Amino acid sequence: xxxxxRRSIAAPAGVPVLMAGALLVGQLAVLQLVSHGHFxxxxxxxNAVPLLVAHEFSKVLAVALVMLLAASAWRRQLAAPALAxxxxxxxxxxxxxxxxxxxxxxxQALPLRHETPEVLGGAExxxxxxxxxxxLVMLGAAGALILPAAAREYWRSPVALAxxxxxxxAITAVIATDALTIAAIRRPFEVATLDLSLxxxxxxxxxxxxxxxxxxxxxxxxxxxxxxxxxxxSGYQGVFSAMAVLGAYVxxxxxxxxxxxxxxxxxxxxxxxxxxxxxxxxxLFAIGVNGAQDVAVNGFHxxxxxxxxxxxxxAAFVALExxxxxxxxxxxxxxxxxxxxxxxxxxxxxPLAGLLAASIVVGLTVGIVNWLYPVVALxxxxxxxxxxxxxxxxxxxxxxxxxxxxxxxxxxxxxxIVPPDRQASAEFAGALMAAPMxxxxxxxxxxxxxxxxxxxxxxxxxxxxxxxxxxxxxLPAGWGPLMVQGLAILGSSVAFGLLHADILAGIVAxxxxxxxxVWRGSLADAILAHAVTNFLLCLAVLGLGxxxxx
Length: 550
Fold this sequence. Notes:
- Helices cover 71% and strands 2% of the residues.
- It has 18 helices and three strands.
- The N and C termini lie far apart (53 Å).
């Protein structure tokens, strides 16, 4: 069959996948906007519907989905673009739309508060429980449209189904615990984490802290410093994120893996994340007790958790690729990418890898204001200079007015999806202005240059340059340009969103930048749009005092 004939068949098949991806992103955007008080009368201005169900679960699901698709492509099992038959697609789409409409209705019964109360009763509790189930249906139906048929084949395996079902059940239980504060589930996890943290704290030679258990959250205090061990601090996000990612990979690779040994790796990874989180709490408390309270509750609090989760998951993946965990090779198809292409993709991703590594290491020592941001920006700029040849080769044709207009549009969407946080802005401004003015002015200058110049170059090289090319190389050639380019934009946008604290806003921005890169045939307009967006956010920070964007 000729290339033209293959494309004429494959291109239409890709349309449902691309439309399903756009549909899910749009639905999550609407839910996010409703939760922040937009779209009256669907919500009341000035009040925030707690979006913990959608936020927590969709974050874990997005990570697992990206890893599943990546593993599928890596093993060359990504063979079919959509569900077989229009009837199946129609059923999945119908379930998705009904569940989405149901969620909008359920949101009206949720408590219109900025924080979830400790105990929900009656209609509120039932609304949260119903919301969890409805969200699962909405996301699952969208996933049935997005995931290729060959990747969904693992559902036919009882073992794979058990792994996936157990993972989803565990995540759902944790979400329900957060929303409904079921003490029978929540308290044992907290107590186990706290006991292990205190054991680690004792190993540091520190005096035993005061422990208060009479409130809704355990509180550790000593030497004028106190922390509350909330459910989220007990590490369930990391534990179940690791389980979701590794569980999806094991389910996909069930024919190649020794399932009982792979399951042990998943359990050990979950235990490793749990233990490292307990160590994080002990170290965090020790840092705060010794006077560096801002460092403890800001930089160290989040960056150590991210770093430890990444290390555990990577170690688990490396282990699962080793001989003791796999059957003898069946001689199936393997992925063979040109070494030159892999080297090129590696160079394009180098600046981002260096910038992220510097951010995490530096982040362990920062407080409310990251005074070491110039170090991170310098690392990123230096690595961009190292790969400047690859950058210059991707800037023709040069930027146009479309890049500028797209950047303004993304800025407007970003502000709409992520309203400024007044409390965080006030805290940031207070910490910043407490420093000597020359230091403040110099830091702001570097921060603006880093956000408006360095970050766009680094991230566009990695996502719209390297990652999009990698996705194109991984996809079968017969799928046609519409399918391949659409999945490259979608996949890189999801990865781009996961890099940001505001995942949904990041995905939307990535879709725009990716579409620009494909349409214009270069990175110039994508870089310009990204730079304009970030510069306008800097103006919002400096002109309107919306410091939470930094």
